[in-house]
Amino acid sequence: MRGIILNSASCSFQNAEDMIIFFDLEGPLSPQDNAYEVMKLIGEEGAALFETISRYDDILTLEGREGYEPGDTLALIIPFLLLHGITESDIRRVSEQATLVEGTKYLFERLRARGWDIYIISTSYEQHAHNIGHKLGVEHANIVCTELNFDHLVPDATMKKEIIEATRRIEEAMRKSHTEDELISIMDDFFFRELPAIGFNPLEKIQVVGGAKKAEAIQSILHDRGLTFSDAIAVGDSITDYKMLKLVKEEGGLAVVFNGNEYSVPYASVGLASMDISFLLILCDAFACGGNARVKDVVEVWSANRRDFENNPREIPDDCISAELRDYINSRMITLPYFHNIDDGKLDEIIEIHRRMRMKVRAHAGKLG
Question: Which partner from 60, 209, 273, 275 sits 20 to 30 angstroms from 193, CA to CA?
Fold first, then answer.
């Protein structure tokens, strides 16, 4: 076996008191993009419209548009939901159809048994975030998400007229294969000039928990708990997570990208590409035992020997997997994951491996930023 062998007597897997872990929801915990599925209630055009606005979100984020944060898509789609009579009950109903990523319940059970405090930091509407949190036994106090109350968002006749006209222009532009710049111009006019002119600025009406707000939430929770970043792990997968991953990594915590896209992978400490998130337990155990240095060592062993481990799981050193996780994967014949130290280079290769796994786990939602 290539790589280093760790000292199995150096740490207990069962001691993680005062350790805290923050999960993004859509991607790491559930494969469904709830807002995407909700937009499909509008009809076939709803999915295409969401994809277009999601791409618009990516562009505004990458250009650094002032006052805009990744994930503000969830504010921008509100006018269309209102126009078509989508309700909070509809959002809850769609959420009930969401599944969990394989291994999530097992992971949460084992983390709690070890003493980890679990938080969900999600861009998702509260109706979805609280539903998934309930399935995983995470109380509302440990969930930070986008609050949404339609009672305060009733569109008047003028607003309905503006939305209908904007929808027509956007759909026409998509049908005619307009350039990306033309689509951006149309949406800039609608979201940043026309709607504010009639007193409805979506970015002011809905305070989306994305981008910087995710990072701020982690910082606030750590401060309130009297903990430091060296006690913390953040897990994300998309453009809405890159700021929290970057902050946690720079401040000495562990930033894990799980089946991430090209917008998130470069900002993580380590990568985990897997059909089953239970393997995150390996990184959590290593972090609790010896911080980032220990994680890097364990990831190095996995990276160097993954093929051997897959051919014979008994080759995995005891230092690199707990006995209970070994039993869990052996009983289910689970495909072994890919671990990567992000700063070791080969970024394009890592992103491609994550892209393939992301599409397997998240299907159509995997193509969203």
Answer: 209
Nearest CA-CA partner of 326 in 307, 312, 339:
312
Strand-pair category, 20-23 with 232-236: parallel
Structural domains in the chain, CATH included, are 20-32+101-145+209-367 (3.40.50.1000), 39-95+148-205 (1.10.3870.10)
> What CA–CA distance (Å, rounded) separates 8 from 47?
51
Residue 196: Cβ within 10 Å count: 13
Q: Which of 94, 87, 107 is nearest to 148 (CA)?
A: 87
Closest CA to 71 of 28, 25, 104: 25
Query: What is the end-to-end Cα distance of the chain in Å, rounded?
Result: 38
Helix ranges (H only) for the chain are 34-39, 44-63, 73-76, 78-83, 88-96, 104-114, 126-135, 157-175, 180-189, 195-197, 202-205, 212-225, 242-250, 280-311, 323-332, 347-362
